[in-house]
Structures are given as structure tokens and as C-alpha cells.
Amino acid sequence: MSNPFRDLPSVAKLLESPALVAARQQYPQALITATARAVLANRRTQLAAGTAAALDVATLAAEIVAVLEQQSRPAIRPVINATGIVLHTNLGRSPLAESAARAAYEAARGYLNLELDLGSGQRSNRQDPIRTELQRLTGAESATAVNNCAAATVIALRAVAAGREVIVSRGQLVEIGGSFRIPDVMATSGAILREVGTTNITRLSDYERAITPNTAALMRVHASNYRIRGYTRSVPLEQLIELGRRHNLVVIDDTGSGQMIDLAPFGFPDEPLIPASVAAGADLVLFSGDKLLGGPQCGIIVGRATLIQKIEKDPLMRAFRLDKMTLAALEATLRLYRDPASACEDIPTLRMLTTPVAELRQRSEAIAQRLRAIPSLQVDVRDEVAYVGGGSLPDIAIPTVVLALHSPRWSEAELARRLRTGQPAVMARVQEGRVWLDLRCVVAGHEDELLTAVRRAVQE
Ligand SMILES: *Cc1c(COP(=O)(O)O)cnc(C)c1O
Fold it and tell me: Which residue owns the Cα nearest ligand 1 atom 14?
């Protein structure tokens, strides 16, 4: 019997193969050599384990080229979101508006007046441009922004209530996921959580009775990703604010999703409106930048100037502050809100959420017709529902239209995997034995790419 190890070609022999000679056009020689060594080492391990494996030069060279190709692709890459879930945290939540993406790009590639007043030549505060924009939009005295709403909550609680008590209803002790839990956030901030009421019922008197000389704040937390139904009662923000005033306490409103304009006419009720919280008199209002606002990942705090100053003086601000790209993207996003009608057009998150079903049906029918040209692929167009995602509006089923795919060649899980790992990557939903494509979050220009991706996934 021959020794299979002896049949393994040498690195030198592999490097002379036509495939690897051609690869030199694309990859540095050192990388090709290193990859050839790695593939050979892997083959030796397989041989030692007794796993059958091809040893000829052409097969090994092809394998090396495949590894080179795979490794040359960035690990973070664009994905076509065909899930219909607009705020998909695993897919980066909100895509940015064109002007916001461009602002981030320009900020990234050059210098900018990040902390410089160009008029006076003096140093300025990096928060000033977004502060001005947020004051105008929300009516708040002042505003600032940090890396996400979790950071906003920690720094706001620390500034207002470190070492003192903050009263929160038991019905609002939210876990957002990714380890954001109100009791833990509270502990991290140094504030002391004082829970009141029960899961389903909390009355004003529950808050009132819990107030002691050591109470610093009352906090409302929006139940972003769940609803309590049935025999239930919570205290309206206005009453909490009135109670806070009487006892000289700060009232913090963690609204989570950050609705800047009223989306109720589009079928999204019950989501707190930022300007309404400010107008009601909340001292600090917190929200995410990349949920319903449709901007970059950040956490925004609007409210009383004295409190915002205190927050900005906290040493944590240095750790939590936004970088130049995010600040530029946030300013550009906020500017779009100057005209609410165009905000709904230009901010992808708002546009996707407000796309009429009739339009989705039309686009789906058009794509279905083209998909049906792919041999052996069955395509149905169906009315279905989707959810907003991103821990927003958990019980609002948005009517939508899906393309339900079935290929006799692949199971639905395998077809979904092939779409996910293809080029471009496509995230679909697997449901009812089918792969569902929802066009709500697929921008019109990406439909051709989606078609190519499906064709490859089904056929190759
Ligand atoms: C989403 C959410 C957060 C966390 O926001 P991130 O920006 O993801 O850190 C905090 N509080 C509420 C109520 C939320 O809905």
C-alpha cells in the first residue's frame, strides 16, 4: 500500500500550477504561499484522521483559490434585508438616509470642524450642532448624544441620582435584549432602584408613598418590546411629572424608540412622541438614534439645560461621546426632520414603514414574474404580516406581501442558507416550509441584485 502522505504535492509544485500562477494577479505571493501551506496542513490532518481526500494538484490548487477568495471578502458586508423587519438589530437597525451616509463618509475621509468654531477660530463643543437641531425639533432647552440609549440611560441616571433612589413601576422593568435590563443599568449607574406597584397595576399613590428624602427621580420606561394587556393600569406621564414637581424630583422618560413625528396615521399607535414628552414637562427624555428616528446608532438625551450640563461634565461623557462620523450622520438625519413630509420620503426607515401594501404587491408581482423564469423554482405571491422589530411596536402586525419560494432541489433551510452565504448575501424568512422574501426593506435599486442572488442560490 502506498503512503498517502508521500502523494501530497509540495508547496513549490502547487505554486507552479496554472490556477495559483493566475492567482498572483490578484493576491500577494506571500499570502498565496501561506494559504497553500495551510491547505496542505489541513490535508495532512485529514489523512492522519483517515478521511479520504483528493490529493491531485488541480483539486488542491482550486481549494487554495477558494480559500483566498473567501478570505479576501470583508467579514462585514452588505446584506439584502428580505425579512420585512425594518429595524433588524442583527442587520444594523436603520439604514441611513443618503445625505446622512454622505455626511458620515465625508467626515470619515477628511478633516472637519468637529470641535472648532470657524467664525471665531475658538474651540467649540462637539455637541453644539446637534444640540441646536434637537432644540428646534423637540422644543427642549438643551440636548446631547452618546453612543446608544443604554449609555444615555446610564449617564443620565448617574448625573441625576448616583447614590440616591429612582422610582420605577414594576410593570416597566424592561429587558431590551443584548443585556439591557433596567435593574442592571440602574446598578451600573450607581442609582438605587426603588420598584413600586405590581406587574399589571401601578398607581400614582404607589409612587407617592415610595418617596423619601433620598429619592432623586421618577422614571418612566417605555415597554418597548412587550405589552401588558387586560386588567392593567399605569400612570400617565403628565401625572408623574406633576408628582415630581410637587416633590422637587427629576422626571426621566426613557422612550426607547424615539418617534419624532407622529406615525399613528400610518398604523403605529401608542409609541411615545418625543416633542410631546418634552411639552408635557419631562426633565430628561431619552431615545435611540437608530430605531424609529432612522439615524445612526446613538442615544439622545433632551431636556433641561442644567441637567444636560451636568451630564456633559460627567467623566463618562468622554467614554460615551460620539465619534465624528456618527455626529455628522446624526446632524444630517435631524436636518431632514425640518420638513416632516420629506423626512418620510428621505429617511429609509420611515419610507419602508409607510410603504403602502398596494405598492409592495405591485413590486412583488413584477419580481415574481422574473423569478418564475428560473427553472424548477415555484413562486407564490401572498399577503402576510411583518413586524417593525428593533424592540419597537411588538404587537403591531404590519400587512405586507411576500414572495414564497420553493425549490424541489433544496430544503427551505438549505435554500435560506445558500441565500445567506451567497453574493450578495440575502436574509429571508423561513416559514411554513417556504422561504419568504419581503420586499419592504429591499430598496428598488437592489431588486436586480436580489434576483441574481436567488438565481445563484437555486441553480449553482
Ligand atoms: C431600545 C431601548 C433601549 C436601548 O437602546 P439602545 O440604543 O439599543 O442602547 C433602552 N430603553 C428602551 C425603552 C428601549 O426601547
Answer: 256
